[in-house]
Structure formats: structure tokens, C-alpha cells
Amino acid sequence: MKTADPELMRAINRFHVLDVVRRRGPISRVEIVQHTELAPATISAITGGLIEENLILARAVEGVGTAARGRPRVMLELNREAAFVCGVKLAPHQISIAVTDYTADVVQTLSLPIRVARQAPGVVADILEDGIRRCVGDADLGLDRLGGIGIGLPGFIDGRSGTCVWTPILGTPDVPLAAMIQDRLGIRPIVAVRNGRRSDFEAMGRRRGSRQQCNKQSVPDQVSPDQIAADTQLQ
To answer: How far apart, in whole angstroms, are the C-alpha atoms of residue 196 and residue 104?
Structure first.
């Protein structure tokens, strides 16, 4: 019988621990054991690694579950500043941009009223570059602090290449939008069908720009958790 891949199992366990901290933090290691049913030694190893990577924070809380010897309880929570994400929503008459922290809380927004369909793809890319730079700057951040950029728009998207095969937003088919933004900002964005799922938007920050994507997207339910529909938080 083929055994499970140890690296895969470690990655899955790490994901579960991080997800519990995200959903229920501040939370103690004992409570994480209860929610994940993983061994205490496994939880200690995983959380120790996450703390070293500055993805979660450990805070000693006096008077909360204090042990008999008076040691404060250590509570774990996501580090809000571990990574930031920029999300962009392309609509027929407006471009909406938001920057969120590692907990998916919005820290800055920008709305640009513009008839996108009347602009050439290169002009749209230039506007996106200026808007993203402005929104990130208004958040007192540099582009180097971004864990990823997500662009959401309706239509048919080749998620693997970031090409807009067809969209009513852009008047031209087969627009290599991801490559165009990468050329301007030095960051390759995830381009996806807009579906409004907050979980997708959060996932990009936690995975720091993972590029595991489906080859084609046309139905919102087919978008994987690593493909960011950037209209989240921008309704």
C-alpha cells in the first residue's frame, strides 16, 4: 500500500493549524489541538515554525486560563502585517482597488470612475498600474510589502497564463493582462473570474501569491481557493 507523502501531510497540517488560528484566534495551543485533533507535539512544531516566519504572533495573557504556578497563558493570532494583498475589480464604469492586511481587513481603498470598455488594453493596464501604486502608497506601504495582486473581471479567463480570452470589460480578445501588469509593477497578478468570495481573497495573502490555478475559468464555482476574485470587499 502506498503511504502518504510526508511533505504533503506536513503542508496539510500546517494549513489546518493556520486556518484555525485565523478563524478562532487569539487561541491557545491546547485549543488548537482540540480543533485539529493533531498531536500536541505536532501543534508545537507547526506553531513554532509559523512564529519564526512571523505569520502568527504569540501573546502572554495574564489572568486567562492561568496555570497553577502562575504562568500566563500564551495565545496565538495572525500577524496582521505579515503580508498585504491588493485586489482590483474591473467593472464597466469603475475600477475599484483595495489593499488588505493578512487578516483580510481592508486598510485602504480607491475607486476610479472610468468607462473601461472605451479604453485600449494598454491604457487600462497603465491606469491599473497608477491606481495600484496610489492605493498602496496611501496605505503607507511599498510594493515590496505586497504578497500578491488579484484582478477580478467577468468573462472567460485562462487562469494559467492570466490571459483574458474574452470579457465584456475589454473590447479586445486574448489580452495578456497578467503579463502587462507584471511588466509595469514587477509583480505577476492572479487574474480570475469575479465571484465575490471573501475566502479566495484571504487565501492569496496567506499563501503569499501562490499560482496554483485551473487552466480555464468561466463559471465562478470553478475558481479554486488560490485564484483570487478581487471584487471581495469592494461591493
So the answer is: 13
Listing from the earlier edge strand, what are the strands of the sheet with 84-91?
Answer: 106-113, 94-100, 84-91, 146-153, 190-193
92 and 71 in a common domain = no
Domain's final residue, options 63, 78, 93: 78
The tens digit of pLDDT for each residue in 124-152 reads 999 999 999 999 999 999 999 999 999 99
User: Which cell goes with 219?
Assistant: 463559471
Q: Largest Cα–Cα distance of the chain, in whole Å?
A: 70
Helix (H) or strand (E) holding 85: strand 84-91
Does 56 share its domain with 155? Answer: no
Give the predicted TM-score (pTM) of the model. 0.73
Kindly state whether residues 179 and 214 are assigned to the same domain: yes
Q: Measured between alpha carbons, how far is 201 from 197 in angstroms, rounded to an integer?
A: 7
What is the per-residue pLDDT across 44-72, written as a single tens digit (0 to 9) for each? 999 999 999 999 999 988 765 444 466 78
Residue spans of beta strands (DSSP E) within 9-105:
56-61, 73-78, 84-91, 94-100
**Could you give the 3-state DSSP secondary structure of residue 150?**
strand
Q: Three-class SS of residue 221? A: helix
- 206: domain range? 84-222
For residues 174-192, one letter each, b for 16 or more C-beta atoms within 10 angstroms of the residue's C-beta and e for the rest, the string is: ebbbbbbbeeebebbbbbb
- Asked whether 95 and 127 are in contact (CB, 8 A), the reply is yes
Distance separating alpha carbons of residues 230 and 233, to the nearest angstrom: 8
- Specify the DSSP class assigned to residue 87: E
Residue type, 53: E
